[in-house]
Amino acid sequence: MRRRHPLPRIWLMTDERMGDALWRAINRLPRGAGVVFRHYSLPLPERRTLFARVSVQARRRGLVLIVAGRDWLGRADGTHNGSKRQGGLRTWSVHSRCELVEARRRGADLIFISPVYATRSHYGARALGRLRLGLLIRGNTIPVVALGGMTASRFQTLRGLSLHGWAGIDAFL
Question: Looking at CB atoms within 10 Å, which of 12, 76, 121, 150 has the fewest?
């Protein structure tokens, strides 16, 4: 896989809960960060329109833009969770060792492992915590991004686990 950009260490995962705060969150990202555009529940025409707006903002701010889902929304720097509609960076969500093996088998360039801590987007799910996260990624060769209740300060507490970076939703709101 040939990348046009360095692999981001900070990521924003978008979703419908963000509403208009999406724009503030994008503006809070440092140059070179990444955005995974999800918004799965929007009707396709609205999703395409919103993706086009996010794409313009991402290009203007020097962000890497990944698109999730099976529908073609427009040009992006890659895809999330196995969509094969375009090339570029391939990212994958992982919650277990089996999913990690599957992501590797499918050629993921970067994996998001969650939930590291309790989070609204995985309400009630058992958080991995530092120990289980470390065991899950032991021996892994794909860059890992911690997701789920993450903030910049929480990421610092995970030093020593060979994580590539961190991602969040609420951390940027």
Answer: 121
Give the three-state DSSP class for 28.
helix
Tell me the C-alpha distance between 173 and 171, whole Å.
Answer: 6
Which two tokens mark 89?
């960076």
Q: Within a 10 A sphere around the Cβ of 118, how many other Cβ atoms?
A: 14
Here the tokens at position 151 are 């903030």
**Cα separations in angstroms, 132 against 8, 15, 23, 165:** 24, 26, 34, 17
**Helix, strand, coil percentages in the chain from 3-state DSSP, rounded to 5:** 35, 20, 45
**Per-residue confidence in pLDDT tens, the chain, 173 aa:** 445 558 999 999 998 889 999 999 999 999 999 999 999 899 999 999 999 999 999 999 999 999 998 888 989 999 998 666 667 899 999 999 999 999 999 889 999 999 999 887 766 778 999 999 999 999 999 999 999 999 999 999 999 999 999 999 988 88
* Contact criterion met (CB below 8 Å) for 29 and 43: no
Angstrom distance (rounded) from CA 81 to CA 74: 17
